Amino acid sequence: MKVALFIPCYIDQFYPQVGIATLQLLEKLGCEVSFPLEQTCCGQPMANSGFASLSKGCDINFVKNFSGLDYIVAPSGSCVLHVKEHLKDEAHPEEAQKIRNNIYEFSEFLTDVLKVERINASFPYKVGIHNSCHGQRGLGLSSMTERMLPEFSKPEQLLAMVKGLQLSKPKRNDECCGFGGTFCVFEEAISVKMGKDRIAEHDENDVDYITGGDTSCLMHLEGILKRQGSKVKTIHIAEILNSSL
């Protein structure tokens, strides 16, 4: 299976190990992975700030880099959702539509397309899971407490395959961490308070790590943890699934 890898800006600049882990795991699972070298931002920061019209150049470049591909995978639910809902190219509307249909968040691709039932990974730590809003409510990666439906979680399904991992969930399992893209800049006090509330619930479970599918949310939590002098670390789910003793 041929897969194109889309790596969001903040992963490329600050957390390259997440992109590397995603690539390595996809290859372990039998995928032939390509990485379009001229890819850039998907345009989400401009859209979040109310300037979606300024992301036209990002859209055109995205279509140029990822057109004609059957599967596009990214380790970021928020960027994937943005592409699915906002990607446009007036010169190539059919290609843009195909990309919107063929782009997948990392854990979604593993469970729904590759249908992974076994992962040879080991991570002997107590891990708390954070459900990011875009992935949960936008992409449907896990169930929501406000809807009376059977519980499910694609990330948890994958983490259950990891040897030695003890998974714990906070009491309010689907509450926002407060990052919210540019929200954490415009409303920093509220953002920080929301992040502290999330961390407090994970602290009650005495976790070693907090994981999730959006590095942006993990980055927000990581900053608060470091300022508190906490020993708890953050780690992307791709890093755990790619880990071994």
From TrEMBL:
It comes from the Bacteria. Residues 3-83, 127-221 form the Cysteine-rich domain. GO terms for cellular component: cytosol. InterPro entries: Cys_rich_dom. Signal peptide: none annotated. GO terms for molecular function: oxidoreductase activity. PANTHER family: LACTATE UTILIZATION PROTEIN A, UNCHARACTERIZED PROTEIN YKGE. This is L-lactate dehydrogenase complex protein LldE. It comes from Flavobacterium granuli.
